[in-house]
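Your task
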Amino acid sequence: NAYVTKLNAILGDKEEGETIEAIAAKAKAAGDGPLFNQAAQHFNHAFYFGGMKPNAPDTMPADLGAALTKNFESVDAFKTAFMDKAVGNFGSGWTWLVYDTADAKLKIVNTGNAGMPEGTQRPVLTMDV
């Protein structure tokens, strides 16, 4: 809530109708750190909490398991790689599973502080570290 409240205070009615991703990207390109931090953290946290579901099934969807196996050799290898990447993310930040449209592959990336996937990276899963 704090990120949204601060973001609204900074923006007022500017950027109305823009996606939060677009606001963050514009702010980063313009070097507006305070606006970027609030917009990016709003996106990151909304994405993170949006992935949590009560009474979620115990099994992974077959197509996700197949994609993880294709890109990481196995689901267990993905889990190990994801956790290793997260533990190695120094300080505050995020670890992401992204789909990179440039080469049609799943990848694990770290971002620091309010960083978020950029360019051709599409977020699939994230962990707040």
